[in-house]
Amino acid sequence: RQFDTFSYEMVSTSIHLKNKVIDQKTTFINENHKDKLALLGQISSSFVHEFRNPLTAVMGFNKILRKEFPDMKYLDIMEYELNQLNFRISQFLHTSKAEFNEEIIMDISIRDLIEEIRQLSYANIIDTNVKVEIDVPEDLIIKASRNGLKQVALNLFVNSIDALKNQPPQRVIKVKSTIKNNQLVISLSNNGPMIANEIIESIFEPFFTTKELGTGIGLYVCKKIIDSYNGDLVCTSNPEWTEFSIYLPDSIIINPPQ
Asked: Alpha helix (H) ranges present in the chain?
């Protein structure tokens, strides 16, 4: 009995010491990772600002040309591509936490925001032959950053369209809103291919991507924006549907749907 007790204590002590070493290494890795992300945010913020200044000028002159020459060809294509470039630049800017503090909080109609995203994605929707179904009350108003939520919705929309490109006909994207357990839930689902569980576990990590030309920052930025509202962004997937759900506290709701 004494030997068994001694053996048990030795094994327990050994396991405890090993776990302590593992915890120390994990803490070091996480802190180092956070430091690198902070540095990346600072670099990307200053670097991308150098692109945004001339881009803003080009976008402004393109709008002037559209007003003066409404029938000129290709200006609409230029505007679309410039908006896409501006969207990508915003993604890089949002890797810096300081950017969230600069957002303007305002009253937002979720239905109007989703409709705007559909219009921005119209070319891709037609090209991919996707049916978009929106089930969001027109009277649902929240107080938040329009630019931040617009970026989240647009990113999820673009990702869903990309997922449907190689699918057979009957491609569908559904957007709906509900209120559950004192939370506003906005979900966007598509009937594209199932996302494996091991990918879902890493899908919101920075620089993780399954796309050949992906940057791996889109969903990371989306998660970061939603986290800033003390909310959550989760992904679930099965062979029929893949769904991204945005959970926001009901405290930001100005006008609950009737």
From this structure: 2-68, 75-93, 110-120, 122-128, 146-164, 197-200, 218-227
What is the DSSP secondary-structure string of 120-182?
A: HTHHHHHHHTEEEEEE--TT-EEEEEHHHHHHHHHHHHHHHHHHHTTS-S-EEEEEEEEEETT
| Residue 145 CB partners (closer than 8 Å, separation 6+) | 100, 103, 104, 105, 106, 225
What pTM was computed for the model? Answer: 0.66
Q: Is the per-residue pLDDT at 164 higher than 60?
A: yes
pLDDT per residue as tens digits for the range 78-109: 887 888 787 777 666 655 554 454 467 889 99
Q: Are strands 130-135 and 105-109 parallel, antiparallel or unpaired?
A: unpaired
Cβ-contact 147, 203 below 8 angstroms? no
Contact status, residue 154 vs residue 87, Cβ threshold 8 Å = yes
3-state SS class at 41? helix
**On the CB side of 55, how many CA atoms lie within 13 Å of its CA?**
17
